[in-house]
Amino acid sequence: MRNRERSHSLNQIVTIGLDLAKNIFQVHGIDACGKVVVRKPLRRGEVMKFFASLPPCLIGIEACATAHHWGRELGKLGHTVRLMPPAYVKAYVKRGKTDAADAEAICEAVTRPTMRFVAVKSMEQQGVLMLHKTRDLLVRQRTMLINALRGHLAEFGIIAAQGTAGVKAAIEAFHAMQDSLPTLAGKALHGLIKQMRVVASEIDTIEEQILAWHRNNAASRRLAGIPGIGPITASAIVATVSDATLFSSGRSFAAWLGLTPRAHSSGGKEKLVGISKQGDSYIRRLLVIGATAVIRRARQDNASKSWAAKLLTRKPARLVSVALANKTARVAWALLARNQAYIAHVGAA
C-alpha cells in the first residue's frame, strides 16, 4: 500500500531541483501546486534509476562540473533539463549551506520566468573546449619555463631579449659557454630547455587539432572572417555558445563576456565604471588580444579610415582594444544567431 502511494506521489512531480556532487546527490521535487513531494539524497548509482521511474518533468541543475554530462543523460530519459549559473541560484537559498537547501533553491530558481539558462553542451563541444583548456594550461606552463630560464641564465650573465627570438638566442649563448658553467647549473638548465621544447611541441599538436576541427565547422569558419578573430577564437566561441539565440542581443552576449561597462548607480545618478569582467574570461582574453592585433595594423596604416583608427585619435590604445573587442563580440553574435557570413564594410574595424 505504501509503495503504491509513494509511486502515485512521484508521478505528481513536475519540477525537480538536483544538487550535483561526486557521490551523494540531493533531490528536491514539487508538484504542480508547489507542494514538496520528494526530498532525499541519492547515491551516484541511484540517480539514473530514480529519474527513469519518473514521468517527464522539469529538472534544474547548477551549471557546474559534470552538469553538462548529467544534462545529456537526463535529457535522454525525456526530461527537460535547465542549467543555471550558480551565482543566480544563490539568491534563492533561504538560510545556511546544506545540500537540501541548495536543491530547494535550484528547484525554486528553475521556475522563475526571468531566470537565465545555460545550454547543455554536446560531447563534441566539450571535447573542443578541453583542447582549448589544455592548450591554455600548456601556454602558461611554457611561459613559466621561459621566465625561469631567463632568470637562471641572467645569473651567469646571459640576458635574453623579449620574444621567441630572444629566448632562442639565449639558449644558443648558453650552449656556447656551458663548459664554463657549473655542472649542476648546466644540468638544471638543460632540464628546463628540454621541458620547454616538449611543451611547445604539445601546444603545436593541439593547435593543429583545433585548426582541423575549425575547418570542418561552418559556424567557426564564418566567425574567422571577422577582423580580430582567428581559428582559435572562432572555435572557442562556437564550442562555448551552443545556442546564440539564448542571448537577446549582441550587447547581451558582450555583457555575458564581461566586455560592457559595470553600472554603479544610485539615487537616480547613473555611473558607469570599467568593464565588468564577468563571464568567460578565456574568450574575453582572446577577443582583446585579437582586437589589439587589429589596432596595431591600423596604427601602421596611416591612411586607414577604420572605426578603430578614428577612435585611436582621441582615446588610449588599451581602451580602444577593449571597445573593439566589445564590437567584435556583437558581430560574432549576429553571425551565429542569424546564420550569416561576415561582409566587410569600409571603416568597419
Counting DSSP H or I runs of 4 or more residues, the number of helices is 14
Structural class: alpha/beta
Mean pLDDT: 90
**Which consecutive residue ranges, at least 5 long each, have pLDDT under 50?**
none
Beta-strand content bin: 5-15%
As laid out across the biggest beta sheet, the strand order is 3-2-1-4-5
Report the end-to-end length measured between terminal Cα atoms. 71 Å
What is the total tally of β strands?
Answer: 7
Largest sheet at a glance?
Answer: 5 strands, mixed
**Radius of gyration based on Cα positions:** 26 Å
Helix content: 40-55%
Q: What count of domains describes the coordinates? A: 3
Morphology call:
globular
Series of H and E elements = HEEEHEHEHHHHHHHHEEHHH
Pfam family, one: DEDD_Tnp_IS110
InterPro entries: Transp_IS110-like_N, Transpos_IS110, Transposase_20
Protein name: Transposase
Domain Transposase IS116/IS110/IS902 C-terminal: 221-299
Please give a structural write-up:
Residues 16-156 form the Transposase IS110-like N-terminal domain. One of its GO terms (molecular function) is transposase activity. The structure is a single chain. By secondary structure, the chain is an alpha/beta fold. It folds into three domains: 2-109, Nucleotidyltransferase, domain 5 (2-Layer Sandwich); 123-215, no CATH class; 224-338, no CATH class. The chain contains 14 helices and seven strands. It has helices at 2-10, 47-52, 67-76, 86-89, 99-109, 123-154, 164-177, 183-215, 218-223, 231-240, 250-256, 281-300, 307-312, 317-338; strands at 15-19, 24-30, 36-43, 58-62, 80-84, 261-263, 272-275. It has a five-stranded mixed beta sheet. Strands 6-7 form a two-stranded antiparallel ribbon. β6 and β7 form a beta hairpin. α6 (123-154) packs across α10, α11 crosses α14 and α12 (281-300) packs across α14 (317-338). The longest helix has 33 residues, at 183-215. The radius of gyration is 26 Å and the shape is globular.
